Amino acid sequence: MAAGPSVAPTLSAAASTALLTDRYELTMLQAALRSGAAHRRSVFEVFTRRLPDGRRYGVLAGTGRVLDAIANFRFDTAQLDWLADQRVVDEPTLRWLADYRFTGDVTGYPEGEVYFPGSPLLTVEGSFAEAVILETVILSILNFDSAVAAAASRMTAAAGERPCIEMGARRAHESAAVAAARAAYVAGFAATSDLQAGFSHGIPTTGTAAHAFTLLHDTEKDAFTAQIASMGTGTTLLVDTYDLAEAVRTAVEVAGPELGAVRIDSGDLTLLAHRVRRQLDDLGARQTRIIVTSDLDEYAIAALAAAPVDGYGVGTSLVTGSGHPTCAMVYKLVARAASADPDAPLVPVAKRSAGAKSSLGGRKWAARRLDADGVAEAEVVGTGEVPAELADRLLQVPLVRGGEPVGREPLAAVRERHRRAVAGLPLSATQLSRGEPVLPTELVLG
Amino acid sequence: MAAGPSVAPTLSAAASTALLTDRYELTMLQAALRSGAAHRRSVFEVFTRRLPDGRRYGVLAGTGRVLDAIANFRFDTAQLDWLADQRVVDEPTLRWLADYRFTGDVTGYPEGEVYFPGSPLLTVEGSFAEAVILETVILSILNFDSAVAAAASRMTAAAGERPCIEMGARRAHESAAVAAARAAYVAGFAATSDLQAGFSHGIPTTGTAAHAFTLLHDTEKDAFTAQIASMGTGTTLLVDTYDLAEAVRTAVEVAGPELGAVRIDSGDLTLLAHRVRRQLDDLGARQTRIIVTSDLDEYAIAALAAAPVDGYGVGTSLVTGSGHPTCAMVYKLVARAASADPDAPLVPVAKRSAGAKSSLGGRKWAARRLDADGVAEAEVVGTGEVPAELADRLLQVPLVRGGEPVGREPLAAVRERHRRAVAGLPLSATQLSRGEPVLPTELVLG
């Protein structure tokens, strides 16, 4: 395992993000340019009406990727030619898109922070035109990354001091896998198997070996000998290709008691971990660690708490959000000017049809109120003036100012913020059982 | 809506896929290069041990993207420098990677085909070295794309002749969304909202308008007037921002009876569709279509079969595989030569530990046996000789020969194959109720 700084942009960080966009964003733009309403100053908010069923808190992840996506939201000639060829939008709109760059402001919860229903996670302010077309890519990033981070946070809480390793690349779209590794790292995972995540985001990478490596060789002993010869005795040997007890014996025979770790990838992990620990100790390999993998999720990790396990490799369940592979975040217009005049006052707006999808108009602030012991007791979301007693508990920070990103930060800081945010919640936050959000959201209408 | 040919590569099609790879693939490579076993001819197979609980068939999607990923699996200088800097692998391995290009063969089920537990979906043959390192990216693509295609296939079956429109971009990782639109199109979706999917894959794109567009304007009538002025009367107006009945009246007042469609995005869709249909008919807008959206899945689509609905917009449920956001496909070494001699015979290999993860060694063929009426009755998977009566029902086709892709095909052909494949299954295949795979998998050991 090796940590490293971010030495290169993400796979497609330099690529334009402009077409990662629903067609209707551009046709609404065209219609609004024609009606003149496109130039009304507008405020959009990202929030979610609910957490996934039974979850105690949400985890915001992807904000750093959103800043890159906004910076790379530019239309190049090939894209504009295609839009023209397909008659997606008209000539005036194409000219407007050709010059596009976001010049507005973005504020929001800092990445890694926890959130609750109604938390104003990202506020985008600019002309309607410049802000509306960012909707799709912003939601794509935040909905996916936050879904993975929420699952990861439950897993690292269940794992306690033992490291969790992200190894779900093969169970997710190949680029989503990189974002998943990043989100898992934000929420406390120690490392990832995904090399691109190491390359793009500086996340420590790690790995063991597959059954194929053992099967390739004539005997398990040949395979272990080859791996030790190449990787040193500190490596992790996979011991469940044939007979587990024989494999552990062979592993220590070949590597000696300095063997770094063994990996168990099938069977009753609790039972096998105890059996292998005893065998390793009997063989004098008392420092050799036991890594378990095999469809782990937060519940399986919690169930292994009393087993002699030294690390968890988590794949499928992590990259699919442990039952909740996306969040329900939306991007809603909450206020807009009454005219295109830059000084026109903002008017709160909200959908008000009969269904369950109504929302509250007006730009929101948010604060986390603490009890006398300094433990969070409520998420307070409001419009208008911030009550004085909450002034130093405000959650939103500037992310983009006049089109310039001002909120970039190293992942280590994001990770530390997440750790502190969870530590500041009531203890029941990390219970795995289903329940209500651990903090109520209180609305203060100004 | 406009269809178009593929005019440009995918967002990152030209980018290297080489680091979309688990670290252990490269360290196994290093150890095998050192032991000499890396040069043994090897056969890897992609298959799944089970379908998601209750599903009747699987749908293979992503094969075309796999061919691109193999072609773009090259290590550039920045990647090699990073691998060296991080000490992921040693110098001899770095030199081997610098020259890497896949020179082997790939065969498999053609894209769009249905599959069952044990179907050999992709067979990769080459040296262990060149084949093992493709594992992660191949599984990433097939597991994600096939999960979406399987859900899409159930939805288009439930929708019958009515079009399904993919609009889930905001609920998936931004690049995964593009692959999801492609997979949905393979499985019969008519169009996507995702512009990048149109740009990269030539999928028809379409769209309506969001509530924000109505809220931006001073009145709903202003918004509808602006949209009609810009997009023409054939556009789709969103009618549930305020009062539905009033919005429908305003829509026809502004657009006339030529109004293309209205979209309903909340509420009891069956009830509202009937009400809106009656109102449109009373207003003389008998040709105006009704499009429904709002957390649809295959069950909701089926429940709307008797309602006067003309099209379904599907988002979250589609891009998250309708409860099964990934497949359980694995990439297993099933045979390898006994030595590095190119003429050495292949030896079947398989994991044989006690757990549930054992698998069958040896390269497989696969055929779909038909009954007297020409309806599929079994998926037959075997090793060794193909029985004569199945010789014209073989499923696998050549995809790569000597490193050169030979299996590329237009999406229209893939889409048509999928349609025919489902039509060839027993009728119970498209039942939405939970059940066993609609075809049994029969094993023939040669």
TrEMBL record, chains A, B:
Enzyme nomenclature, EC number: 6.3.4.21
Entry annotated with the keyword Cell wall biogenesis/degradation: no
Protein name per the record: Nicotinate phosphoribosyltransferase
Stated role: Catalyzes the first step in the biosynthesis of NAD from nicotinic acid, the ATP-dependent synthesis of beta-nicotinate D-ribonucleotide from nicotinate and 5-phospho-D-ribose 1-phosphate.
Lineage: Bacteria, Bacillati, Actinomycetota, Actinomycetes, Kitasatosporales
Post-translational modification: Transiently phosphorylated on a His residue during the reaction cycle. Phosphorylation strongly increases the affinity for substrates and increases the rate of nicotinate D-ribonucleotide production. Dephosphorylation regenerates the low-affinity form of the enzyme, leading to product release.
Enzymatic reactions: 5-phospho-alpha-D-ribose 1-diphosphate + nicotinate + ATP + H2O = nicotinate beta-D-ribonucleotide + ADP + phosphate + diphosphate
GO cellular component: cytosol
Occurrences of domain Nicotinate phosphoribosyltransferase N-terminal (ranges): 19-143
Listed GO MF terms: glycosyltransferase activity; nicotinate phosphoribosyltransferase activity
Pathway(s) served: Cofactor biosynthesis; NAD(+) biosynthesis; nicotinate D-ribonucleotide from nicotinate: step 1/1
Entries under InterPro entries matching the protein: Aldolase_TIM, NAPRTase_N, Nic_PRibTrfase-Fam, Nic_PRibTrfase_pncB, Nicotinate_pribotase-like_C
Family, similarity comment: Belongs to the NAPRTase family.
GO biological process, one term: NAD+ biosynthetic process via the salvage pathway
The UniProt record lists the keyword Ligase: yes
Pfam families the record matches: NAPRTase_N
Keywords (A to Z) from UniProt: Glycosyltransferase, Ligase, Phosphoprotein, Pyridine nucleotide biosynthesis, Transferase
Domain of life of the native organism: Bacteria
